[in-house]
Amino acid sequence: MFAVAAHAELPTVQLSAGMHLIRAEVAADFGSRMQGLMHRKSLATNAGMLFIFDEAAVQCMWMKNTLIPLSVAFIDEAGAILNIADMQPHSEQSHCATGPARFALEMDQGWFAKRGIKPGTKLGGLDKLKARR
Q1: Which CATH code fits 3-132?
Q2: Which of 14, 94, 126, 129 has its CA 20 to 30 A from that of 25?
Q3: Contact at 8 Å (CB) between 52 and 102?
Q4: What's the confidence (pLDDT) of residue 129?
Q5: Are 80 and 107 in contact (CB under 8 A)?
């Protein structure tokens, strides 16, 4: 179910947004969430990072030491996207969920928009993480 990603040595999970498959590294503890995608020069096609928060709350993200432009989808406990924000490299501007988010998924900037994925879309595959919650 989980494979180890060579670059960050984090477990990965396969998620889906409609017909689109995503290979996401899983950042489930404080240290991996703080590191996030810092210092990466690129992401593989359809790859990203899923942040799992300890509880559903208004979570915020920033881009300190992050080299590539990203889009972040904040996701509720049921797996539905609350909102999506585009984030610029090296920015310390906070981008926050519009409601209680249990997850955040970072992908290359524009990934969601190019695929017509919008707030309300439900992600598949989050049930694979129940053992980790």
Answers
A1: 2.60.120.1140
A2: 94
A3: yes
A4: 80
A5: no
